[in-house]
Amino acid sequence: MNLAIVRYNAGNIQSLLFALARLGIEPIISDDPDVLHGADKVIFPGVGEARSAMTYLRERGLDNVITSLKQPVFGICVGMQLLCAHSEENDTVCMGVFDANIRRFVPNPDERQRFKVPQIGWNTLSATPHPLFAKLPQEFYVYYVHSYAAELVPETIATTDYVQPFSGGLHKGNFYAVQFHPEKSGEAGAQILQNFLDL
Length: 199
Hints:
single chain; alpha/beta; Rossmann fold; 9-stranded mixed β-sheet; 4-stranded mixed β-sheet; 6 helices; globular
């Protein structure tokens, strides 16, 4: 398995590397277009702020590289958000693979004690029957750290409710993405990573 992880200025990927190592996978971390195009599969992770990440990607032409990939691509957290059309975080135009907008959680004043922003911790994912969620129940817990989330769209393959329902997972063509952190989501997260590797 030749797995590449996109290298860019969006957070620490050490926990993802540990999770892949537990599955027997040692990925290549690269921003080289030839390496990314030549990989069997590509993971596009991210923790950070949308506009600075998109600026970095555009300056290096990585936005065009990522959207031109033909093999399975897996966006995680900010990686998922950057694959969408637009983010409210600093009014950022993203890559537009998914026709979804990223919106900030805005609880009503009487809900602010219940819904802290960012959402940090475990929440229920309601999944559709989809290869990314093979061998998992329809509902299970995953781990989130985020203040922004994708609206519900036809490409939505899993939902979570926090303030309001949002897309926990998206799929279109060879692009798959999740808002949560599978590398921090225990056995369910490990199964999702394995399912992506098995696609």
